[in-house]
């Protein structure tokens, strides 16, 4: 028995080798569904299950050499499960079982918003299957979300869950659970920094050493000033600056600011992300 993993909406091949012989009869089944049939040297699709219409393909030029593999197109989550390939020839009978897993390319995000009156977190799960379970923790206490919005795209789910930040001394965590995947995000407020005009400063960003060499590691610095958010700099293997007087230190991902002015005052947000974890660190700079 073999397991094949395919990507949602893409194609995959379910293998079925057999000893070559004469007058091949090929049946692919999933439970009691007829997925694909072949005999008399051609496809026989009159009794094919409608779920598989126009989505199956045998490599007919390779059947004489013992290859009854099935190409399945436009994968969907209901395609998951065990498939049986039966091949009969005048000489032998062969049965092969293949289990198909369908992976969905889901992604996740934590967004921090600040207005004059409140601070808020929005936790997102995009294009998951099944529906994700989102939970919140403040400090080390579970808390309820204040709002949520769910949308469907075919069989896939997208979900947004909102949380108010009541106490900036506490870290806040958003946790997303799925049967095959988990994702976590953390928000944390650091002590205020004060500097004088014309000076330089480095705003540190918290991260753990073991995350920096993970594929998909990235750092983004943004400034929230009077509810206007501007992207300052980023790092994803190389450093990029999007504003003058701003640089990201590639060694510790701190944000270096030169020639400070009063307009540089505001909340600085460092977003460190890997595919399964995001950490948002906020610091207020007063110039």
Automatic annotation (TrEMBL):
Gene3D superfamilies reported for this sequence: Immunoglobulins (2.60.40.10)
Domain Ig-like: 1-99, 179-281
The UniProt record lists the keyword Membrane: yes
Domain of life: Eukaryota
Any Pfam family matching the protein: V-set
Keyword Glycoprotein (UniProt): yes
InterPro entries per UniProt: Ig-like_dom, Ig-like_dom_sf, Ig-like_fold, Ig_sub, Ig_V-set, T-cell_Activation_Regulation
Compartments where found: Cell membrane
Membrane topology category: Single-pass type I membrane protein
GO biological process: cell surface receptor signaling pathway; cellular response to lipopolysaccharide; immune response; negative regulation of T cell proliferation; positive regulation of T cell proliferation; T cell costimulation
Assigned GO CC terms: external side of plasma membrane
Name of the featured protein: HERV-H LTR-associating protein 2
Organism: Cathartes aura (Turkey vulture)
């Amino acid at each position: 028995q073999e397991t094949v993993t395919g990507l949602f909406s893409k194609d995959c091949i379910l293998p079925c080798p057999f000893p070559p012989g004469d007058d091949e009869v090929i049946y692919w089944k999933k439970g009691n569904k007829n997925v694909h049939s072949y005999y008399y040297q051609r496809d026989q699709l009159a009794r094919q299950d409608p779920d598989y219409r126009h989505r199956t393909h045998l490599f007919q030029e390779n059947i004489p050499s013992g290859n009854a593999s099935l190409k399945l197109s436009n994968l969907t989550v209901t395609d998951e499960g065990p498939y049986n390939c039966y091949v009969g020839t005048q000489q032998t009978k062969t049965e092969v079982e293949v289990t198909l897993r369908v992976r969905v390319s889901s992604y996740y995000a934590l967004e921090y918003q600040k207005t004059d009156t409140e601070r808020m977190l929005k936790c997102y799960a995009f294009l998951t299957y099944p529906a994700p379970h989102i939970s919140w923790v403040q400090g080390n206490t579970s808390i309820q979300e204040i709002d949520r919005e769910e949308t469907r795209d075919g069989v896939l789910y997208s979900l947004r869950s909102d949380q108010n930040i009541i106490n900036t001394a506490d870290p806040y965590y958003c946790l997303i659970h799925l049967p095959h995947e988990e994702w976590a995000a953390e928000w944390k407020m650091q002590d205020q920094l004060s500097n004088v005009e014309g000076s330089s400063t480095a705003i540190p960003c918290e991260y753990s050493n073991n995350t920096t060499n993970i594929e998909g590691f990235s750092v983004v610095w943004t400034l929230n000033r009077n509810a206007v958010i501007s992207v300052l700099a980023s790092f994803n293997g190389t450093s990029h600056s999007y504003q003058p007087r701003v640089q990201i230190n590639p060694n510790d991902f701190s944000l270096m600011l030169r020639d400070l002015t009063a307009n540089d005052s505001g909340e600085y947000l460092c977003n460190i992300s890997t595919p399964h974890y995001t950490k948002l660190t906020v610091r207020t700079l007063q110039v």
